[in-house]
Amino acid sequence: MRPVSEFERIRAMLRIAADLDSPDEVVLGAGDDCALVRPASGESIVLSTDLSIEWVHFRRDWLSWEAIGYRATAAALSDLAAMAARPIGVLVSMALPRELKTPVFEQLTAGIVACLESSGAVLLGGDTSRSPAPVMIDITAVGAVEHAIRRTGARPEDELWVTGLLGSAASAVLALQSGLQPDPGARQKFEHPEPRWREAIWLAKRNALSAAIDLSDGLAGDAGHLSDASGVRVDIQVGSLPIDPSLDAWSETLAPLALAAGGGEDYELLFTSPPGIVSNLLADFRLTFGIELTRIGQISEGEGVSWRDQAGGPTDPPASAGYDHFT
Q1: How many CB atoms lie under 10 A from the CB of residue 136?
Q2: Fold of 151-308
Q3: Contact partners, residue 56, CB within 8 Å, separation at least 6
Q4: Measured between alpha carbons, how far is 280 from 283 in angstroms, rounded to an integer?
């Protein structure tokens, strides 16, 4: 069988993505040298990029190629959620070993397209290349927003909230590392995470967001980023964390708290809100999105992340400080 050329791969990608509905902002989509995007009046274009590398971010013996493509795309779109921006589309660059056949490329693309379809976004373009070893997928996400939520907006006395559950991805990874089948719910969240951009826009429209960040590197690390950007101290009540119940299976050998706080790749939304707003939105939020909002602390004057017991006193931080590629 002859090798499949670069341009045949690109044409296959365009064919798989052809049925996606194009947002109004897209003047010209994939297929030309560049895409053209025109935001609505008063809006800004939001850009972010996320790189996924085999053996660093994923393993092909753990995940289907479809799931690998989906996760890579969701990770990029999750950055848009942190700014309460709606997705428009993505640019995709992939480097693949020559031995990977056309079906693998098509399955990767199908995963990317499935994530885009669930977010109402499109493929704006991309590139392919040959990799000498690992698979590499780089996704540049393009979105639009009128009033962006930033990491810098947290103020003393703001409340600290999080969407969904923490530690789902860590639970799945632990099981896979141990040669076990992950809990079905944890596996689903690991393979097909949901960027919380709809939730973020909903909260922003109700003036419930003063600062936000998506939880890609783990609560411990990302709370530190929020602290640094806003120049405040983030106080987290350890007993209030909404820990995925599947982590209970590991409680005899590992601390669920450390896994929930440092595991990463949950792609939930960590945000601050002025006092008293979110508590009045809990029922409507649950009805609209089917997940919970949990208050896990507050913002104080100072710096860094402070871990607190239920009485408000200081307690030892979790063993994990979050994911860092170089430590």
Answers
A1: 18
A2: Phosphoribosyl-aminoimidazole Synthetase; Chain A, domain 2 (3.90.650)
A3: 134, 325
A4: 8
Tokens linked to 44: 């800004």
Look at residues 307, 256, 290 and name the one whose alpha carbon lies nearest to residue 164. Answer: 290
The answer to whether 171 and 250 have CB atoms below 8 angstroms apart is yes
- In the DSSP assignment, the letter for residue 318 is P
For the segment 107-117, the average pLDDT, to the nearest whole number, is 95
Question: What residue spans define the domains of the chain?
Answer: 6-145, 151-308
- Sequence-distant (≥ 6) Cβ neighbours of residue 243 within 8 angstroms: 165, 166, 167, 256, 257, 260
Strand order in the sheet with 122-130: 44-53, 136-145, 86-96, 122-130
Give residue-wise pLDDT tens across range 135-155. 999 999 999 999 999 999 999
> Domain 6-145 is classified in which CATH homologous superfamily?
PurM-like, N-terminal domain (3.30.1330.10)
Helix locations, the chain, DSSP H:
6-16, 65-82, 102-119, 168-177, 184-191, 197-205, 219-230, 256-262, 282-289
User: Which distant-in-sequence residues (6+ apart) come within 8 Å of 31 by Cβ?
Assistant: 14, 125
> How many helical (H) and strand (E) elements, i.e. helices and strands, does the chain have?
9, 12
pLDDT per residue over 185-195, tens digit each? 999 999 999 99
Burial 198-217 (b: 16+ CB within 10 A, else e): bbbbbbbeeebbbbbbbbbb
CA dihedral 172, 174, 175, 179 (to 10 degrees): 130
The answer to whether the CB of 183 falls within 8 A of the CB of 171 is yes
Return the sign of the alpha-carbon dihedral for residues 200, 203, 206, 210.
Answer: negative
